[in-house]
Amino acid sequence: MPRTPFTFAVLGCAALSAQTAGASLPAGCKPLAPQQVVESFLSADCAACWQQPDPASTVTGPRTLRLDWIVPGDLGDDAPLAAAALPEAKARLKTPLVPADSSVQQQRLPSPLPGVQLAVQSGLAWNGYIGLAFDLRQGRKPLPADAQGWVALVERVPAGQDGSAVQRQLVRALAGPLPLTFAPGQRQLQHLRAVLVPPNSRGERLAAVGWIASANGRMLMAAQSAPAGCATPE
Q1: Which of 119, 133, 150, 218 could form a disulfide with 176 if both were Cys (CB 3.0 to 4.6 A apart)?
Q2: CA separation for the pair 1, 128 (Å, rounded)
Q3: Contact between 130 and 153 (Cβ < 8 Å)
Q4: By the 8 A CB rule, do 44 and 73 touch?
């Protein structure tokens, strides 16, 4: 296939994924499998909403996965947070899981199916693109027939930076739904996607988050890449 920036981003992510799979992360760097997910939805029109603490900030813990979505607002490209707004955020907000009068959704993940393993990884930015890898290992029981995979590029914003009062994990790009059909005898499935590097993002804060969800949007399991400052040994 032609060697485009998109191709190199995917290939770079594939190499990184293979390297990570064959090596152990330093102590304290292996991400814990999330047991609950809290999602915060902010309107791109509301700069003050970004600057203030929200109910999601009270849900903490080493096995809590936070996702922050910026929903396109009525002001379009003139909205204060328009640069980080995603059309997919509006679709996620409309899932039956999010109450109509709420900007926060919290859900506890079920116990994972025996043997099922999910891992995600982000590559290095190259010529405007960054690769995302979604790796799924088959378990002893099949996933639900309507299960779909998703992988997101997130920006981890520390509390007190960029005007945010709380620590956030801002969704900057989303790939999916990813089919999770295993061929006969196949035990491992991998999806590689390349997305544009988000505008005004900082490369050292970018990471990957992936999840498996049912057709109505309820998450069945999730995973995230290693925390900032962790590196895979050579």
Answers
A1: 150
A2: 19
A3: yes
A4: yes
Determine the 3-state secondary structure of 57 from DSSP: helix
Handedness of CA 4, 5, 8, 14 (dihedral sign): negative
pLDDT at residue 1, rounded to an integer: 43
State the chain's maximal CA–CA distance in angstroms: 53
Gyration radius (Cα) of the chain, Å? 17
pLDDT computed for residue 129 by the predictor: 92
Supply the pTM of this predicted model: 0.85
CA-based angle 195:201:206, to the nearest 5? 65
> What are the mean pLDDT values of the chain's consecutive 10-residue runs (234 residues total)?
53 51 54 89 92 79 90 93 93 72 83 89 89 93 92 95 93 96 90 92 93 91 80 40
Rounded (10°) CA dihedral 163, 158, 71, 206: 130
Q: Measured between alpha carbons, how far apart are the two ends of the chain, in Å?
A: 29
Q: What pLDDT is attached to residue 168?
A: 94
Query: So what's the pLDDT on residue 32?
Result: 77
Number of CB atoms found within 10 A of residue 104's CB: 16
Residue type at position 42: L
